[in-house]
Amino acid sequence: MTDIHAFTLEFEVRDYECDLQGIVNNAVYQNYLEHARHVFLKTQGLDFAALSQAGVNLVVVRIELDYLVSLRSGDRFTVSVDLERVSRLRFGILQTIYRLTDGRPALRARVIATAITAAGRPIMPSEIEQLLPSQAPG
Question: What is the pTM of this model?
Answer without folding.
Answer: 0.90
